Structures are given as structure tokens and as C-alpha cells.
Amino acid sequence: MNLDKLDTHAFHFLVDMLESVEIGLVVLDLDFQVQLWNGFMENHSGLTSTAVRDQNLFSLFPELPQTWLRRKVDTVVTLKTRAFTSWELRPYLFRFGTSRPVTGTEPVMYQNLTISPLAEPDGSIKRVCLMIYDVTDVASSRLALEQANKQLSRLSITDNMTGLLNRAAWENLLDSEFARYQRYCHPCSLVMIDVDNFKSINDQYGHPAGDEVIRHLAATIRAAQRRTDHSGRYGGEEFGIILPETDGEGAMVIVERLRQAIEAAVVKTQHIEIRYTISAGIATLDKTIPHATTWLLQADNALYAAKRAGKNRTEVA
Questions:
Q1: Segment 233-258 mean pLDDT
Q2: Which domains are assigned to the chain?
Q3: Most exposed of 80, 90, 202, 299 (fewest Cβ within 10 Å)?
Q4: Which residue, among 28, 306, 87, 107, has the nearest Cα to 191 in the 3D structure?
Q5: Distance separating alpha carbons of residues 76 and 217, to the nearest angstrom
Q6: pLDDT confidence band for 58 (50 / 70 / 90)
Q7: Where are the strands (E) in the chain, listed by range?
């Protein structure tokens, strides 16, 4: 539409619409000089249309992704077609703050962006229009939902008290490691750990103190394990650790280091100090073990052998 041919009423109507519309409108020439800057852009940037008129966009906003935006505009001009980018691919073009009541927790305004070619009467493209849509409400809701889903997923596999894997999730990994051994025959060891005399701790100090012992053991296991290890709470005061790529000798070194750390530790709770020990059993996979349940049983038997031999020790199946 040629503005020169519009009557005065229509012209003012168009200007008023551009100023009040709830999207950002920026018209640029092909040198990225600003030709139009509407009220939305004024309000959120703090720069008036007069101040930015005929100014280079990248000089006004040095933080803009210049290479990316130039490539987008070149494509729009060459193909004479619109380009669209959502907040999911690039959260925003202009780093504007947001003051909406619903989305006040978000640090920035999330934006969708449309770049449209503006054709001259002869069909040539000498300007483009950037249309910036504030989609913070949508983005905030989506991000909150994704975070909630991640939290639910984490909770579904996590033991509430210790933060380690729960029994079901840990047993799934046990099955996976057994299947991996069947295929590749890489060494793998399983450790079962139990707190010695745990009932006496509960009877003497109370269940809250016993819970602190459980949490202390879990934290010590987590701090001692390697990135590839998998630890979980098997039940009550019993824990399991899967040690991939680890033979029996290596497992013994790891478990003994853990056992000695527990023996030397003091759990402070409710103005009392508790010392405790653990017993552990190790079972290393070999071709004679037919099932993951057999592997687990061997480690459990080794654990109870350690109990029978006097506790505070490690036995190997």
C-alpha cells in the first residue's frame, strides 16, 4: 500500500494501529537502518522512534545475534518469503524484561519472530519487517510443565529419604548390566551393604536418629561412587552398588575405602553423636551366573557371611 495515496484519515488510522498493536514492529532497510519503530518497541526498549530512526540496528543493540539475523534476512530477501523462528529455538531476539503479573518469575520476555519482505511497486525487496511477539505466558507455562514432568520422572525412580535410586529403578539397572555382560563380557561387580546393628541404633536413639544414619550412609556412598556406578536403596538399611568395568579386586578396594570411611565417621543429630559400621558382600559376574537374580543372591549371601564373621567387614562371593 502506497502511503502517499492514502487520505489523511486513513493515514492516521494506520499510524494509530501500528502504535497500539501488541506486537513489536521494526522496519529495516537492507543496511539494517531502522525505518519504523512502533510503540511496543518504544515501551520495552526505552528508545523512542525518533532516537532510532535511520540508526543501525546492531549499533543500537550490539548484543543482537548479528550473523544469525543477517543470514535470516538474506534468505527472506532472496526467496521473497517470510521466515519464522519460535522461542523454543531462540528464546528471544531483543533482550527485553517482562513485568506481566502472570509471568513475573521469568527474567526475560520470550519472543516469537517473523521476518517479512516488504515489496516495492516494481517487486524488488528493499526493506524487511521484523514482527516480535511476546509469548512469555506460553513459554513460562511450557517450561513450568516440563520442569514438573522432570521432577515427577525423577521422583518416580528416587528414594525419598536418601535421594539414591529406589529399589525398582536400581533393579532395572541391575538387569541391564547383567544383559550387557552377557553380550560383551566386560567385568562387573555387585555390592550389597547393610548397616550393622541398625535395630540397636533405633532402639537406643530413636527412629529419627536411625533415619539420619541412613541418610549419612547414602551421602557417603554417593560421594565415593564413580560417575559410571549405580547406587540404590534396596530396602530399610540395605543398599546396593553396581560397579561396571570392575573386577572383584577393584570392587574390594572401593568397598573397603567406603567401609573405613563409615567406621571413622560420626553422625551428629539431636545433640548426640552416633558411630556405626557397615558390612558388605561382593559378587563379580562370570559365565556361571545364569540370571541377574542369582548375581544378587550371591552378593547377598556374601553380605550375610560378613555379618556372621563378626560384622564391619567385606566378604567376596
A1: 96
A2: 3-143 (3.30.450.20), 158-316 (3.30.70.270)
A3: 80
A4: 306
A5: 61
A6: very high
A7: 24-29, 34-37, 83-85, 111-119, 125-134, 188-195, 230-235, 238-244, 267-269, 272-274, 278-284, 314-316
